[in-house]
Every structure is written in structure tokens, then in C-alpha cells.
Amino acid sequence: MRIREHPILRFPAGGKISFFFDGREVEAFEGDTVAGALTAAGLRILAHSRRLGRPRGLFCAIGNCASCLMEVDGQPNVRVCVEKVRPGMQVCSQAGKGRLL
Amino acid sequence: MLAKDGLPEEGDLRAVMPDEKKLAAGPAAIIECWQEIPCDACARACPNYAILPMPNLYERPQVDFSRCRGCGVCLSACPGLAIFIADGSRSEGAVLRLPYEFLPLPQAGQRVAGLGRAGEVLGKFLVLDVTGANMRENPAVIFLLVPPDMAMRVRNISLEGA
Amino acid sequence: MTGGVRECDVLVIGGGPAGLCAALAAASCGVGVIMAERDGHLGGQLAKQTHKFFGSARQFGGERGFLIAQRLAAEAENAAGIEILTETPVLGIYEDGVATLLHRGGHMKVRPRKIVAACGAAENFLAFEGNDLPGVCSAGAAETLINAQGVLPGRRALMVGGGNVGLMVAYQLLQAGMEVPALINHAPQIDGYWVHAAKIRRSGVPILNSTTIKSAYGNGQVEGAIICEVDENRQPLPGTERRVECDLICLAVGLSPLNGLCQQAGAALAYIPELSGHVPVTDEYLRTSQEGLYAAGDAAGVEEAATAMEEGKIAGLSAAVALGYGGTAAQEALTEAAAELKRLREGPMSERIRRGLAVLRSEVIKC
Fold this sequence. Notes:
Chain A is built from one helix and seven strands; from the N terminus they run ββαβββββ. Chain A is mainly β.
């Protein structure tokens, strides 16, 4: 969900774009982080843990931790909390450690 | 209890209240700032030098009620939203000014729930005015008409069910 | 440039309140500064803080955090002698004094004559069953989503932690339109300022002291929490468990200084609980034990934005003076900043910090 009105802050929306989350089209605004856009769309499960397959979500949102690692346009282990969305970007839940090749 | 949830007790409040004569004479600032915080925003803001200067930054604000005109500049300046203005000079009741940082804002003429320091509903009261609707820099100020015995009890409003 | 290595007087790592003030202070002496900020904007965590800050006029006390951040960032952008590199994390500081920056997809090598590490701090995690469920996040993460991105992280949040971060963020969640069923605090009394507690109490949020979170539950993501009371030894009291329905659990359980770069550069660290963990050993000029390396702000010990600003000024001025810049004006500014820092820390609320600093400064002679 987006904040429609806030007592102190204004959120000027950038242009509408879309990207893909595990193949599904997700709407976003320019300037959004991937994690922000996914959260706004109600998508909070970003990955699954390597050994036990437990769901993983956002923890710190500022690039300090490794809770939100995803595969972005084929590159694994991207911290999507600090990665900005780009039109047509392919964001995938990462399987295991991820593979570069 | 202050240390448990920031709620003052009778004695705490008595120490920061103007006397009855001052309250009945016009608006005055009630500063509910209980700790020695390194902050002098209210003293710097006061145009009447009614809040004593703080050579030590951590001193608690002290109001010289003989100088306080209840202008409310300190209410807008306080980072802790801990300053309220009470005016007991009106015949129809006490006029309280409360800092407020939520949307939607009430409208003048609207009746809203007045809340106590623990968020408890104390009654429905008339909003006389709302200033500072653009809250980007400072909180809005709600002018609320309350019975005189509520002047030291009402500290927030709620528009729910209003 | 020599051999692809850029030379500069001072490299400031971090564009938060400490880094910005360090860069501005150094540049005011005529020093050439490169400021590397990992994020896309300046201001650090101050940029997302909507509450007004305490402090004196020198630290813009009485202004909202994001407005202070904007003010400092604009000053740095307009200052002569500060080259600002955003989206540029510093990867390492090596034996030969070269720092490697990740900049526009490539490695930029910088050999500064002095370095100010103003890297900030990271929020702590907490051990409880189900703490890895999506919907458990740091209080700062919720603040980032709401105030920096305009996105609601949930509808109903349980706040865990009775310090200023917990109290302030609980208030900010309410401002964004969320519900906060409770703030729980494992200590018998709150640790944050009472005025901040009063703001959420009069909005109807209960503060439950001597209470901890036992577990988070939910199918794939948070649907609620089990909380329970603790005894005087902070041990759970059996039979006091309660269910709190919520879709978000925010952890505000302290911060730890980001000391990695200082440690890698060879600076001695000391474990000072009062300063929130391992911090570089610094003297009153904020020099670390590593020649040419200074530390300021939360990275030098978690405190407040106002003290971070004054520390930044001290570190920036110390570096400039050590390089022979600034003359008597810099010396005077240094004395002023030190006096102001002392003034900010004089009160009873800073007793813990003073205790920690006393231990830290006693470590200096060992280095």
C-alpha cells in the first residue's frame, strides 16, 4: 500500500513503470527501490532460506544486512532494498546461493 | 508514572501549572518537559523571554508566568510536543491549544473527542480554530474549548466517530 | 592521478550528519575533500526522520530531522572543495593508505592524506522463535519505507523496544495511518525520553514494560506475536503469554557501530557497552590509533544526531589542522566544537555516554 497523504511529508510520484517479479508484472514508480515497490504491492516474501526453505523478507531496508538478496536481471545476491527499479527489470526469488554463470 | 510510560502524576503537573489567577487572566504555556534534555528550543523561541535562558543546555524549561503571554511560539518550537497553552479567561470555558501532527485535521466548528494523556476519551469538545495546517516544519495547533476542569487533562483529540 | 590512484587531502566516508559536518568543517579550512556516500542521497538516516531534534541552535535543535539533513546536504553541495560521490560505498582501506571505492560499476582508488570514518551504525536483531518471518523488520526499515518511500510496511505493527527509536518510530507509524496495538519493552522502565513516550500514550498506544516477545507466528509471513512478561532478571514468566495480532513486528533493540573499515584499516577497537559495542579507540580530537584515520558520529559510539554533528566538525577540523590548514581560525573552531560537544553531554541524560567515553579515552594510552 502507498501512503496517500501524510501530515509532514509529500511523496511526489515519479512516472509509472513496471517490472517483473518471478515473471509476474508489478507496477512501480520511478525512484522506488525494488523492495519498496514489492512491499507496496503486498509482496513481502522475497526469497527462501538455503537449507530449510524458510521465507525471507526485508529486514533493515538500508543495505546493511543480507535478508533481501534476490536475483536481478540474472545477477544474484542483489540487495533489493537499495536497488532502484528499472522498466522491464526481471526480479526473481533466488534459489540457494545463486549462480553467476 | 513518568519513568514507565511518560505519564505525569498530580504533583508533577502542579509544579508546571500557572496559579489560578494567571490561568483566569489569559493564556499561558504549560510545559510538560520532565527530564533534563540537552535542548533549549523553547527558550530560544520565546519572544517575551518568559522561558528562562539555559546556560546549561540540559536545564528544564522554567516559565516566568509574569512574562508569558501565551503566544504559543514555544508550542510550535518544542521538539517533544510537550507544550500546551491554556486560557481560562473565557466565560464559555477553557481554551486549550494542542500541538497536532495527524491527518485529517479537524475543522473549526467541529466537535471531536478530547483525549487524556493515556489516550482515554474525556468527552466531546468544540474545535474553535486550527492553525498551521501545513505541518512540514511545525505541528498544527488545535484550539479546543473544554470545561475548566479539563484544561489540565485533555492533551489530544480524536476524529474517530466525530 | 598517479597510476590510476586519485590523491586528495581528506576522504570522508559517509554522508550522514557526522560526515557532512566533517566535510564542511574541513572544506572551510581550504582542504580538498572527497565525500563517499553509499546511498543515492546525502543526509544518512537523518533524511528520513520527521521528528524535531533536540539540541542547541548550532545543531539546528527544534528542526525536523529531514529538514536538517536537507540543509546540511545543500551546504555541502554548494561548498567549494567538496566532491560528493553518492552511490559510492567504500570497500576497503589498505596498508598503502589507498581506499577503494565502488563507483559507477568500477573501482575508484583514492589515496587521501587523512580519512574521516563516519559510517554510522546498523540496527540490532533479536533472538526469538519466528524472527526470520517476513514482516519482522527493524524499526528503521519501517521508517525508511514510510518516510523515504511513501510505502506502508503493514497495517498493524507491534513495536519492540522502549528506547527513543521505538518510541519515535511508533509515533511515525501512527502518523502514516498504521495501528500500533502496543509497544513492549523488556526493561521495567522506558529508556527513551518521556516526552516521546507521552506522544504515543496520548494517541492510545499502551507501553508494556517488563515484557518481551516470545515468538512471531504466521503462515509464510507475520500474522501475530506471542508476548510475555519477564521477571526482574528479564526471564520470561510462564503463564503470562498473550497473543497480539499484527502483520508487522518492528525491532528497536539498539544499534551497533559500523566499525568494519576502521578495523580493516588497522585502528584499535575497544568494546564499550555504553557506546553500543566495538568502537575505534579515539582521543578527544577523534584520532584513531591508525595514523591519519579519524572516526566520528555513530561509528565512533552510538549517540544522537546533535553530538554526531559536533563530532564531525571536530574530526574534519582536526584533519585540516594536522595537514597545516586553517590557521588560528581552525583552532578556534575546534575549541568551540569541543566545548559544544561537552555542553551537549553535560546533563544527566548523557551519564551513560560520559561513562563509556571515560573508559574509551583511558584505552588511548594502550594503543
